[in-house]
Write a structure and sequence with these properties.
Elements (H helix, E strand, L loop, with lengths): L17 H17 L4 H13 L3 E6 L2 E5 L1 H7 L27 E6 L5 E10 L5 E8 L1 H15 L9 H18 L3 E8 L2 H8 L1 H18 L5 E4 L4 E7 L5 H15 L2 E3 L2 E3 L3 E8 L6 H17 L5 E3 L2 H20 L5 E10 L5 E12 L3 E3 L1 H10 L3 H17 L6 E6 L9 H12 L6 E6 H6 L1 H14 L2 E7 L6 H7 L3 E4 L1 H7 L5 H14 L3 E4 L5 H9 L4 E2 L14 H4 L1 H7 L3 H11 L2
Parallel strand pairs: 11-12, 14-16, 16-17, 17-18, 18-19, 19-20, 20-21
Antiparallel strand pairs: 1-2, 1-5, 3-4, 4-5, 6-8, 6-11, 7-8, 9-10, 13-14, 13-21, 14-15
Helix pairs in contact: 1-2, 6-7, 7-8, 12-13, 13-15, 17-18
Bound molecules: ligand C2E and calcium ion (CA) (2 copies).
Length: about 600
């Protein structure tokens, strides 16, 4: 038994997320087996296991090697009971694969009865051992669900209440900080409601509110949250994918939906709505800030004559006008040859041999000079120009790569909007034939958002692309709202860990287990991994140690015009220079070229 009489780590006596507990124990177990004589590591692991409220099993090839006291307690058995037993004799549907997020399961008790638990499994790196963490769900389940329902629901309309909205704001803030993407808070006020409520009486008012809530829920997407936060006021939290204009679009839809008459027993009643919008992080750093900024915006909308929406700042409107001007200029950028590509190499992490180059788009604006793709790609997506621009990128990158004598991969970013084109696979097939590039040398980088938006269509597209023989990489992994299970389903070859995680490796303690777990899980799915945004030797060393296959970042190479990358793209020059690939890369980073 992992039995230490005294829990040495009281700080751990809290409800750690099950997956984090599992990863931590797996990491410590690994440390233990690497250096068995490091008694400190061993003690730490035991203390962690003992202090945990959750059951822990360490198993090897399905056989139980060790358990902690919490598990014995939960099963009502003594420590010796586990000797010579197998994990699958304890869990009704067998041990989960170590790729899966926490799954609900039944624990088989000695008397044969079944007990609800949550189970997470993680492989201990480089050993055949597996850690399973098991959380008792019985006491919490029923009561917790009921409490949550009562405290977070508006009883009249069935949508969330103010408290639910506050909770959702807090959750979105931490997700947005991690993902580097913002979200919007919309406050929706029903015009004329008070007058109608007074005129027709409370019964009608209540039924109007119920219908209004239903309409709102039907207007937002599934990822948005709707709550009733005042007598006739609703709040909506909307995750943004880089486009503040999405919030305006939603506000517009809400206003037109609410302008349609409501039917109360055959009597048609017209309401209407005004909307105030606050954006995170631009307009406020906390939920409370955002609530009051959105209220200000709502006041402006009401003052400007109801049935309309406003951002909280006049500055926001100016920003929108600037974007419109850029959208206009983008219209002629392609025919006026204002686009170019730079290429950023990526490397095998252990040999630092170049493995491929990612094409990145640049726009030289006639008056403003270089405009960042982070600025203009969302605009191009909004107005549909991304389709011809994206094809130009593909054609240019494939033609360039076809001329390289070093047959490395060329990676091209695909916008989700390009997938709404039915014939994207055909177009790419034609470009490959036209340029003579072998399909296996083209890798398409796709962001998670796409898969969330329209799963069936996305699946059909990705399958068509796979049939061409090109490779698929999931870009910016970890910033979206989906999980590794998507990758399994969509037949990806590779995932790129978002650079926000890599940046945090140096200074934030919780980034390491996350990166470690992503790499371990990807490996068991037979997915390659690229870490992007590698900027320091320490990050590189850690990623190598974890077995991350590819690395990319300013430490090893910045995006450059293709003419400056002959050392990578031309086999002869590479062979000449790469007597020691590590030295080349080290030299490159030291001289910063
Ligand atoms: P991305 O696909 O994640 O590309 C990587 C971005 O990270 C590039 O920015 C690159 O210059 C930057 N980067 C690379 N290594 C490091 C590093 O070590 N540290 C830091 N801080 N940054 C690093 P860039 O070129 O500004 O591109 C921004 C985004 O614009 C890209 O993100 C991609 O989403 C989009 N993009 C660029 N070109 C295209 C394109 O041709 N088509 C589409 N649809 N999107 C593109
Ligand atoms: Ca990319
Ligand atoms: Ca990326």
């Amino acid at each position: 038994m992992l039995g230490f009489a005294h829990g040495a780590l009281p700080a751990l006596r809290m409800a750690l997320p099950l997956a984090a507990l599992c990863v931590a124990v797996a990491a410590l177990t690994n440390a233990r087996s690497l250096s068995r004589r490091l008694a400190l590591q061993g003690r730490r692991m035991r203390a962690l296991a003992d202090a945990a409220f959750d059951g822990l099993i360490i198993a090897r090839a399905g056989h139980i090697v060790d358990v902690n006291p919490a598990l014995a307690r939960l099963m009502g058995v003594g420590p010796g009971w586990f000797d010579h037993r197998r994990v699958d004799s304890l869990l009704q549907s067998g041990p989960p694969s170590h790729l899966e997020p926490a799954a609900e399961q039944r624990l088989i008790l000695p008397d044969g009865s079944l007990h609800p638990v949550e189970v997470v499994a993680r492989q201990v790196d480089d050993t055949a051992e597996q850690v399973l963490a098991i959380r008792d769900l019985a006491p919490s389940k029923a009561t917790q669900a009921q409490i949550d329902r009562l405290t977070h629901t508006d009883l009249l309309t069935g949508v969330g209440n103010r408290q639910a909205l506050q909770k959702s704001l807090a959750k979105m803030i931490s997700m947005a900080d991690r993902a580097g993407r913002g979200f919007a808070l919309l406050r929706v006020d029903l015009d004329r409601f008070k007058a109608i409520n007074d005129a027709f009486g409370l019964g009608i008012g209540d039924r109007l509110l119920v219908q209004a809530a239903q309409r709102l829920c039907a207007t937002v997407r599934e990822v948005d949250t709707v709550a009733r936060i005042g007598s006739d006021e609703f709040g909506i939290v909307q995750p943004l994918t880089g486009r503040p204009a999405d919030a305006a679009a939603l506000a517009g839809r809400i206003i037109s939906e609410m302008a349609l008459p409501f039917d109360i027993d055959g009597q048609l009643v017209k309401l209407g709505a005004s909307v105030g919008i606050a954006l995170y992080p631009d307009d406020g750093a906390s939920g409370a800030d955002l609530m009051s900024r959105a209220a200000l915006a709502l006041n402006r909308a009401r003052k400007d004559g109801h049935g309309t929406w406003r951002y909280c700042e006049p500055g926001m409107d100016r920003l929108l006008r600037q974007r419109q001007a850029l959208a206009h200029d983008l219209g002629t950028a392609l025919i006026e040859n204002q686009f170019s590509l730079v290429y950023q190499p990526f490397f095998e992490s252990d040999s630092l041999r170049v493995a491929g180059c990612e094409a990145l788009l640049r726009w030289t604006h006639p008056r403003q000079g270089m405009v960042s793709p982070a600025t203009f790609i969302p605009i191009a997506e909004e107005c549909g120009l991304i389709v011809p621009i994206g094809l130009w990128v593909l054609r240019t990158a494939c033609a360039a790569a076809a001329a390289w004598t070093n047959p490395i991969t060329v990676s091209v970013n695909l916008s989700p909007v390009q997938f709404q084109q039915d014939n994207i696979a055909e177009r790419i097939g034609a470009i490959l034939r036209e340029t003579g590039l072998a399909p296996t040398r083209l890798e398409l980088e796709i962001t998670e958002g796409l898969l969330m938006d329209d799963t069936e269509q996305a699946m059909a597209m990705l399958t068509a692309l796979r049939r061409l023989g090109v490779k698929l990489a999931m870009d910016d992994f970890g910033t979206g709202y989906s999980s590794l299970s998507y990758l399994k389903k969509f037949l990806f070859d590779k995932l790129k860990i978002d650079r926000s995680f890599i940046r945090d490796l140096d200074d934030s303690a919780d980034a390491r287990p996350i990166v470690q777990a992503i790499i371990a899980m990807a490996r068991s799915l037979h997915l390659n991994v690229t870490a992007e945004g590698v900027e320091t030797e320490r990050q590189l060393a850690y990623l190598r140690q974890q077995g991350c296959r590819f690395v990319q970042g300013f430490l090893l190479g910045r995006p450059e015009p293709i003419a400056d990358l002959r050392w990578a793209t031309h086999a002869e020059e590479w062979e000449a220079a790469a007597a020691d690939a590590g030295e080349v890369a080290a030299h490159r980073s030291a001289t910063g070229d």
